[in-house]
Amino acid sequence: MPTTPHPTRGVAPCDRCGAQIRWATETGTGRRMPLNALPSPMGGYAAHTTAAGGLVVRELTRDRAEPEYLEWKAVAHWSSCAAPAGQRPPSVPRARPARRRPTVQPPLWGTGGTGRR
Known about the structure:
mainly beta, 6-stranded mixed sheet, about 25% strand
């Protein structure tokens, strides 16, 4: 009984071509993988939503060639991305910005120097 995903929940634009994609986690490797937002009968992957709201995907193999209960066929976005082949996504900064140290408020006048009454 194949199902279809929610039309807008979990959908984001591709950084390279702007197409609508969904990010899923591969069951075997645990890596993140972009999928086209809409299901496709030509897809080589079976995706389903977990109880926590995450999207999990597995490759369709010879043993399990069809989507199972609550799964739908999906296409990996990198195989259908319309961006030019040489174009790279915008670079993401590797390091986090420096954290600001918390400031200490000076004591209030007339409170004895502790700041508390």
